What we know:
By secondary structure, the chain is an alpha/beta fold. It has two domains: 6-44 and 290-390, Aspartate Aminotransferase, domain 1 (Alpha-Beta Complex); 47-285, Type I PLP-dependent aspartate aminotransferase-like (Major domain) (Aspartate Aminotransferase, domain 2). Helices cover 43% and strands 13% of the residues. It has helices spanning 6-9, 16-28, 47-57, 72-86, 101-113, 129-137, 152-161, 185-198, 255-268, 274-285, 289-312, 338-349, 375-398; strands at residues 34-35, 96-99, 119-124, 140-145, 169-173, 201-205, 231-236, 249-253, 324-328, 351-352, 354-355, 366-370. Strands 2-8-7-6-5-3-4 form a seven-stranded mixed sheet, sandwiched between helices. The chain has a three-stranded antiparallel sheet with strand order 9-12-11. A two-stranded parallel sheet has the order 1-10. Helix 11 (289-312) runs parallel beside helix 13. It is globular. The protein starts with 5 loop residues before the first helix and ends in an 8-residue tail after the last helix.
Amino acid sequence: MEHQFERINRLPPYVFSEVNEMKARARRAGLDIIDFGMGNPDSPSPAHVVEKLVEAVRDPRTHRYSTSRGIKGLRRALANYYQRRFDVTLDPDEEVIVTLGSKEGLANLASAISAPGDIILVPNPSYPIHPYGFIIAGASVRHVPTGPDFDLMAEMHRAVKNSTPSPRALVLNFPNNPTAETVDLAFYREVVKLAQAHEIFILSDIAYAEIYFDGEPPPSILQVPGAREIAVEFSSLSKTYSMPGWRVGFGAGNRDLINALARIKSYLDYGAFTPVQVAASAALNGPQDCVEGIRLRYRERRDVLIESFAAAGWEIPSPRATMFVWAPIPPEFRSMGSLEFSKLLLQEAQVAVSPGIGFGEYGECYVRLALVENRQRIRQAARNVKSFLGMHQKASVSSLPRVMGS
Length: 406
């Protein structure tokens, strides 16, 4: 008997699975795959954070249920972070909530605030949970094209004007995954003005706000006067402190949205394990040189990748932030699409990347590389890419018709 599940049927096939299956087969065959596919930090979590976790877990009182809103000490630490980083004052009891990573917070808030028939604006390409959290909740997503060829602000104005009914919410993510684009405070001011005029909620994801390389640190939308009337912002400790497996993040901002998320979470979970939250507090309140070290590691890897891949014949723009590189597919391969190019690159160069189509239709001409391999491995990948490109250029030349007398 074949069952049909409507919410599952609204989700497209997971395009990354084909590349992941190829990686698994290649590794079983003994091939050394240089893997830029998943944004999974490879450096250890800070030692003082691990030590705090061990200390907390030895206290049997921490083994009981926690609270779905998050322990007060961590909410205070998050409010203090906003104060010192963005000069934004938050009420830790009403305007901050602890989540099981930013992904969980975004998905559960989508369920809390949307219903079938609601229209949600989501830039495309985007991190999959941004549109699909709302699709799972039953809402309709209107994709807003973004990237080097588009004016996102103009596209958002056009989307709002042409949407019936008026959009319920807008999702933003800067610095962006996958494109690594950044915005300034002036951009946020205009977005807030647009959202206020049309009574649209804003869900901002700043998971990479501390992974920046050039220019000013990325801003928070909550720095804009009036933003807290309509906006909530999500982040996590995953990338900032190299703590992806700990699954601890937060939401901050509009108290009605925070309370809606808290109510949904009260039915679904009891919050992260208390020792994890205690250790997360130590990360936010403790020395921040570890964050600078993580930032430096990604900057060095970025520079090595951009330089070595250019020498190999693959010109890639240098990102100003995030742990990702958004790479245009070399022109001679563009017609095959990002999925087939990713599979070919894995098969012939033993280099794994994420196909851009997995982030939306406007990502089709790109692939994403995560800076999760060390500098030596990046240089090896560049050598593999150089051989790969050279082989296909020779094959292309050899396939040309020969000129009489040559």
